[in-house]
Write a structure and sequence with these properties.
Radius of gyration: 23 Å
Number of strands: 2
Number of helices: 14
Distance between the termini: 54 Å
Structural class: mainly alpha
Strand order of the largest sheet: 1-2
Largest sheet: 2 strands, antiparallel
Order of helices and strands: HHHHHHEHHHHHHHEH
Strand content: under 5%
Shape: globular
Helix content: over 70%
């Protein structure tokens, strides 16, 4: 409720009207200050030393079209995404001062995952089911373990213990538990003797529709019916550096540029893998998601270091939930549209890793407080998974491909 309304309702007579007038004058003055400072806010986001690296954006695009080689394309676009991630993080922080930390984190996750969806569509059209499955799993794991772990660690260096909204985190983790079950069941079914691939594919498509509906219900729960449960009582009132419209515009523009750089980066990885001998499983599950989630990573760690734990969780956990309950079923439906056998039948290793990652993250989040040791444990879990991915054999027969004959590419 505006200050003037509170004064009118709580006060009485002449005193109330004087309070109303004073409050409205203050509000008008605040609006003028915000309008004058908005240009400075935009310049503050764009004019930083890190943004000198934006020169690699045109270089990355040029290296792709002029065919400078996969190594040059990979390097230029990799470096270009770093300052763009910083801009996305700053714009999200500015937007969160208008809509709250939790909703700001949700918006950041949505813009960030737009890149994932674009890459997913292109990969499915090319028939790269294994690449899509590996990168989607890696995106969930990187947000759940690496991004959240580093956010907790950064916050732990600032203060002994950081608190956050455990109710919102618990709701997200419940959704992630559902998604891990939805991915595990088709995988288990595919290993039952006498089953066939067509039935498993239909099970995956029906399951995808179900979990997508659950995500829509979760959004309704978070934004409408139980919005008060996701609020932050201790959230500090901050001077907004940019308006909500300008912040959203910057977010959208930076996301579009990241989408272009990410696409060129993905195209160059095959060549880099062959030239430098990097395992494809490591690239798909570890390297690609780290690059794709650079925006979420920068936002979450920066916000946590400033004590904005709800914003950090809204980005890291919110992004994982969105990928698991929306982007994954979206990819199955896209495969259905293009008649590509994209399914929820991930490797047994993938499904097991997801379930165990959700388990350890739930344990860390249950008390509504974090410290640097819990962050270190999450990062260590991610490192253990990365080590296994490095040693996964390239030959799908050695990697334990499914007996239905649809070998994975990772």
């Amino acid at each position: 409720m505006p200050i003037s309304d509170r004064a009118y309702k709580q006060g009485g007579g002449e005193y109330a009207y004087k309070a109303v007038g004073a409050a409205e004058g203050m509000a008008h003055e605040h609006t003028e200050v915000t309008a004058r400072s908005e240009c400075m806010g935009v310049l503050g986001v764009l004019c930083t030393w890190l943004n000198i690296l934006l020169i690699f954006v045109p270089l990355g695009i040029a290296s792709h079209h002029l065919e400078w080689g996969s190594a040059a394309t990979f390097s230029c676009n990799f470096v270009a995404i770093v300052p763009l991630a910083g801009i996305l993080g700053a714009a999200t922080e500015a937007l969160s001062s208008h809509v709250g930390q939790m909703i700001g984190g949700l918006l950041n996750a949505t813009f960030g995952n737009a890149v994932e969806m674009i890459v997913t569509i292109n990969a499915i059209r090319a028939g790269l089911v294994g690449v899509v499955q590996g990168s989607l799993l890696g995106s969930i794991l990187s947000n759940l373990l690496l991004v959240l772990g580093m956010a907790f660690f950064a916050a732990g260096l600032r203060m002994k213990e950081s608190t956050f909204n455990s109710t919102g985190a618990s709701a997200n983790m419940s959704c992630l538990t559902l998604s891990s079950i939805a991915l595990g069941l088709p995988t288990i079914y595919s290993n039952i003797p006498g089953t066939n691939f067509e039935d498993m594919l239909m099970i995956s498509r029906i399951s995808s529709v179900v979990i997508a509906i659950v995500y829509l219900l979760f959004l309704w729960f978070q934004l409408v019916t139980h919005a008060d449960m996701f609020g932050e009582d201790d959230e500090e009132d901050e001077q907004a550096t940019m308006s909500a419209f300008t912040s959203t515009l910057v977010l959208f523009g930076a996301t579009c540029v990241v989408a272009v750089c990410s696409e060129y980066l993905v195209d160059s990885i095959e060549g880099v893998s062959e030239e430098y001998g990097l395992p494809k499983a490591f690239i798909g599950v570890i390297l690609l998601p780290i690059v794709g989630n650079a925006a979420e990573h920068a936002t979450a760690v920066t916000a946590a270091a400033k004590g904005k734990m709800n914003l950090a969780l809204g980005v890291a956990i919110g992004s994982s939930t969105q990928i698991a309950l929306f982007v994954v079923p979206f990819s199955v439906v896209v495969g259905w549209m293009y008649d590509v056998p994209m399914s929820l039948d991930f490797r047994v290793f993938d499904s097991t890793v997801l379930i165990l990652s959700v388990f350890i993250t739930s344990i860390v989040l249950h008390d509504g407080a974090s410290n640097w040791l819990e962050g270190a444990m999450l990062v260590a879990t991610y490192i253990l998974i990365a080590i296994i991915c490095w040693f996964i054999p390239e030959d799908p027969d050695l990697a334990g491909a499914h007996h239905h004959g649809h070998h994975r590419e990772l």
